[in-house]
Design a protein that fits this description.
The chain is α/β, with parallel strands linked by helices and about 230 residues long. The protein contains nine helices and six strands; from the N terminus they run βαααααβαβαβαββα. The chain has a six-stranded parallel sheet, sandwiched between helices. Helix 3 packs across helix 4.
């Protein structure tokens, strides 16, 4: 094995393809084009709550954001709660990106310890990776409720992952598609690997990633596991 002992994977958009939620939005009357805006709003509101000293789980924040969009778009819904549940119920059924199985299996076979750390639900992460046939590759699925509800990029979230895996920060690398997550992990002392899934450049105000890869399979090759 070359590189970090533990690879801590973000889940939403890093491993999973959220575009599969667009048809669920359409089912409740919201245009699929609102998917990126909705998800960005969920992250914004959850992170803002953490900064303010508040706490709420992903499902609650995501539901509130969906209800906001329904009201803003002027879409009449007989049961808004059921509409939100219809969208969120698809989260455990999300597909992983096509590069994920190859890369994850290669990293696991090379001896890296793999865990997930999400602002969402550990149960959802577990279900997604089980459906993808990758359950045996991950030793643990963690979510920020174990960090007293502190959403990433709060330092407590990364500290929780280190406690659970029993390694120092220098032995762990966070793998994520989100620059804010990379920045937070770097400030907490972890190594970082940014998955650049789009042409959007890395923000100059963030701490740079230690590695940049185009996919999980590419990251595995960089670490000598491909």
């Amino acid at each position: 094995m070359r590189g970090p002992e533990v690879l801590v994977f973000d889940v939403n958009e890093t491993l999973t393809d959220l575009s599969a939620l667009a048809p669920r939005l359409a089912d409740i009357g919201l245009p699929g084009r609102l998917l990126p805006e909705w998800f960005a709003g969920v992250l914004r509101d959850g992170i803002a709550l953490t900064l303010a000293g508040g706490r709420a789980d992903f499902a609650t924040v995501a539901r509130d954001a969906l209800l906001t969009h329904l009201a803003r778009e002027g879409i009449p819904v007989a049961d808004p709660g059921a509409a939100a549940a219809h969208v969120l119920g698809a989260l455990p059924e999300l597909p992983v990106h096509p590069d994920v199985p190859e890369g994850v299996r290669a990293l696991h076979a090379a001896g890296h310890r793999l865990v997930t750390l999400t602002n969402g639900s550990a149960d959802t992460s577990r279900a997604v990776l089980r459906r993808a046939g990758l359950a045996e590759c991950f030793e643990a699925h963690l979510d920020v409720q174990g960090a007293h509800g502190c959403w990433k990029p709060a330092p407590d979230a990364y500290a929780y992952a280190l406690r659970e895996t029993g390694v120092p920060a220098a032995a762990a690398t966070l793998v994520a598609v989100h620059p804010w997550d990379i920045d937070g992990a770097a400030r907490a002392g972890l190594g970082t690997a940014w998955l650049r899934r789009t042409p959007v450049p890395y923000p100059s105000a963030r701490r740079p990633a230690d590695r940049t890869a185009g996919s999980v399979a590419d990251l595995a090759r960089q670490l000598g596991a491909g």
